[in-house]
Specification:
The complex is a heterodimer of chains A (about 350) and B (about 280).
Chain A: H1 7-11, E1 14-25, E2 28-39, E3 43-47, H2 54-62, E4 71-79, E5 83-84, H3 90-96, E6 101-104, H4 118-129, H5 134-147, H6 153-156, H7 166-177, E7 184-188, H8 196-213, E8 216-221, H9 224-230, E9 233-238, E10 241-247, H10 248-253, H11 258-265, H12 307-311, E11 327-328
Parallel strand pairs in A: 3-8, 3-9, 6-7, 7-8
Antiparallel strand pairs in A: 1-2, 1-4, 4-5, 9-10, 10-11
Helix pairs in contact in A: 4-5, 4-7, 5-7, 7-8
Chain B: H1 2-10, H2 14-36, H3 39-43, H4 69-104, H5 108-121, H6 125-136, H7 140-166, H8 170-177, H9 182-190, H10 195-218, H11 230-237, H12 246-273
Helix pairs in contact in B: 2-4, 2-12, 4-5, 4-7, 4-10, 4-12, 5-7, 6-7, 7-10, 10-11, 10-12, 11-12
Classes of the chains: A alpha/beta (about 350), B mainly alpha (about 280).
Chain lengths: ~350, ~280
């Protein structure tokens, strides 16, 4: 199939390498220079609040930014075995979508076509990408339903989406995303619409599939507890940029960026605490992405901001005297910058 | 079909069942016309029995040219159903293409196309059809084409709306993320979602098409004599209304029954496909 494999792709273990990605919706810089890489069998979590550019990043990788309203303005998106994705024709991207990259969306309730049986919808993906007979595709759809943990898959395949619960539908969406053994799975808040027990099951399923298929996973979420369960690498995004990148353990044990610190403080604990305590929240909101202030994007909400923060935007760099595997975008960790 | 009949029985929509029955009789008559009555029985003049009243040998009597009314009636059903069926099918396909594409793509071309459709809708349909027949010349083919063309804008506008809203639904983006291209999305993922609308509108449009076809034939713009078209039959015999009313009543009542039956079935189909009509089974939200 992939006779023309770029030797650079073989050397690096990365499935996906995004660098300097910029996506704009008019004047709004939804994604403003984002870089990350995902290795085979690795889960990268992109964390951030609403409007931080997480979903826009995923849609940019898929080439699904609606052409009427936005565009990928700069950067490079390299997929192993396929090279640069930016600039590919829509037809070429359609070949990659669903075959090399599978995507799972946030809303399982509405992401399935209401008028077709779920087995048919899964089979449709295979018939789109592979030369496979109708009956063989149907058999494999049943196998996939079994693989994603749906009981009595033969009869469930005959169900319409409205006959399934939200968790079941998300399993079906996952089955569709992995139908062609993609090397990369993009999951855009796949558990946000589900209740917590189902969420845990879906996370376990995604993790099991990663081991089974060896795919790289980009998992987008705003929930740090999900990050703790599933990630190996974490990118924290704020206002269109990556503010911190670290292996999951290091990040959770010792968050560096004040935004990450705030995010972690605002996770409600389950243990009963002494007396009533207000859940800490990060004051303020994400700045207007169409008219970004000078300096650090987070400074108006940052408890530790100082003079330099208003003057220049900090670089994403290895923290001074810190773990070389980490990067943080904050003047506090730049040698000689902190006051 | 069986599901539809069971639904009608279960929800006591007996009028729709009557409509279905009447429709079945007309369809059977139209299909069997060449077997029971030869074309010549319906067209050859036999003045010896002109205006004969209904009798045992001529159950519905004969018209002013002495032609068996029942033969003309069944052949007329054939003409009406062929004209209406063909014109609605052609208009549905064209309307789906235009409405679907104009709903899916939002650009200058589709904008101009839809405004052109609106312009045509602003004229009464029968006027549009008369204008087209004036250009094409009267006859069965041009009658069919005229009715089809005059209904395309209605269909296009009707189908554009749901496509416009369906294309923003999550499942469309999800299908796109799984490799579906524009045409596959529009015709295999979006269009099936409006199949109920297509069926219901199709059945109601059939009634309209039958009526317009007869109206135009009454004006002499349809198939030319001796082809037995109901509207034309009424027009040719109307001077004998007082002396021999059966020559006008027979095609008139047939027309009335066919249009009524199509409307009743259309109403039944609308209720059948409408999730809010109180069906027992759950439907997608």
């Amino acid at each position: 199939m992939n006779a023309m494999i770029d030797p650079a792709d073989v050397r690096s273990a990365s499935v996906l390498e995004v660098s300097g990605l910029e996506t704009r919706f008019g004047a709004v810089r939804a994604v403003d220079g984002v870089s990350f890489a995902v290795a085979r069998g690795e889960t990268l979590c992109i964390v951030g609040e609403s409007g931080s550019g997480k979903s826009a990043t995923a849609l940019s990788v898929m080439g699904l930014i609606p052409s009427g309203s936005g565009r990928v303005a700069a950067g490079s998106i390299r997929l192993a075995g396929h090279g640069e994705l930016r600039g590919l024709s829509d037809a070429a991207m359609a070949e990659i979508r669903g075959r090399a990259i599978g995507m799972v969306f946030q809303e399982p309730m509405t992401s399935l076509n209401p008028v077709f049986r779920v087995g048919t919808q899964i089979a449709e993906v295979m018939r789109r990408h592979e030369d496979i007979s109708r009956s063989a595709a149907r058999d494999r759809a049943v196998d996939l339903l079994r693989m994603v943990g749906i009981p009595s898959p033969e009869s469930r395949a005959q169900d319409y989406p409205h006959q399934l619960s939200g968790g079941m539908r998300q399993r079906v969406m996952i089955a569709m995303a992995i139908a062609c053994d993609p090397m990369l799975i993009l999951a855009d808040e796949p558990t946000t619409a589900l209740d917590v027990t189902i969420q845990a099951q879906i996370l376990a399923l995604i993790d099991a599939l990663k081991h089974r298929l060896g795919s790289g996973i980009v998992f987008i979420t705003h929930d740090l507890r999900v990050v703790a369960q599933i990630a190996q690498q974490v990118c924290v995004m704020y206002a269109g940029v990556v503010v911190e990148r670290a292996p999951v353990r290091a990040l959770l044990r010792d968050p560096l960026h004040p935004y990450t610190v705030g995010l972690m403080a605002s996770v409600p604990g389950t243990a009963p605490r002494s007396g009533l305590r207000r859940l800490p929240a990060i004051p303020g909101t994400v700045p207007n992405l169409a008219a970004l202030p000078k300096g650090c994007r987070f400074r108006n909400r940052c408890p530790r901001a100082f003079a330099l923060c208003a003057e220049a935007e900090p670089p994403l760099a290895v923290p001074a005297n810190g773990d070389p595997e980490r990067e943080v975008r904050c003047w506090l960790y730049v040698e000689g910058a902190a006051a | 079909m069986t599901g539809f009949i069971i639904f009608l029985l279960a929800t006591r929509r007996y009028m729709a069942i009557v409509g279905l029955g009447v429709l079945a009789v007309f369809f059977a008559a139209a299909l069997a016309a060449p077997l029971i009555y030869s074309w010549s029985a319906a067209t050859l003049v036999n003045l010896s029995q002109a205006l004969a009243p209904p009798s045992l040998t001529l159950p519905l009597g004969a018209d002013e040219m002495g032609r068996d009314m029942i033969a003309r009636l069944v052949w007329g059903a054939r003409v009406s159903l062929i004209v209406a069926g063909t014109s609605v099918s052609v208009a549905l396909v064209a309307g789906l293409l235009i409405g679907g594409l104009c709903g899916y793509y939002d650009n200058r071309i589709t904008f101009v196309t839809m405004r052109a459709m609106d312009a045509v809708i602003s004229f009464p349909r029968i006027l549009v059809a008369i204008m087209l027949i004036t250009i094409l010349g009267p006859g069965m083919a041009s009658l069919t084409l005229a009715i089809a063309i005059s209904s395309v804008p209605v269909f296009a506008r009707l189908f554009r709306g749901p496509v416009l809203s369906l294309k923003t639904r999550d499942f469309v983006l999800a299908s796109r993320s799984l490799g579906a291209g524009d045409m596959r999305l529009l015709f295999r993922h979006v269009m099936p979602n409006i199949s109920a609308l297509i069926i219901v509108q199709g059945s109601i449009s059939l009634a309209e098409a039958v009526l317009i076809a007869s109206g135009l034939s009454f004006l002499g713009l349809g198939p030319q004599p001796p082809v037995p078209e109901w509207g034309a039959m009424i027009a040719q015999s109307r001077s004998h209304l007082m002396s021999s009313p059966h020559v006008v009543l027979v095609p008139g009542i047939a027309l009335f029954l066919l249009v009524l039956a199509l409307n009743l079935v259309g109403d039944g189909l609308r209720d059948f496909t409408d999730p809010k009509a109180g069906r027992a089974i759950a439907r997608p939200a």
